Amino acid sequence: MNAPSSGIEPIISLAARYYTDPAIFENEMSGLLSRTWQFACHASEIANPGDYKSFEIAGQSLFAIRGHDNVIRTFYNVCQHRAHQMVQGSGNTRVVVCPYHAWTYELTGGLRAGPNIKAVPGFDRSKICLTSVRTEDFHGFIFVNLDNDAAPMDEWFPGVRDEIAAYVYNIDSLAPLEWVEVPEKCNWKVSVENYSECYHCPMNHPTFAEGVVKPETYDISPDAGGGYVLRHTTECQPMDKMTYPFDATKPHAGDYQSWFLWPMFSFQCYPGNILNTYHWRTEGHDACVVYRGWYTEGGQESDVIRKLAVQDLETTVAEDVTLVESVQKGLMSKGYVPGPLVVDPNHGVNSEHSIAKLQQWMREAVDG
Question: 65, 148, 228, 279 - which has most CB atoms within 10 Å?
Answer without folding.
Answer: 65
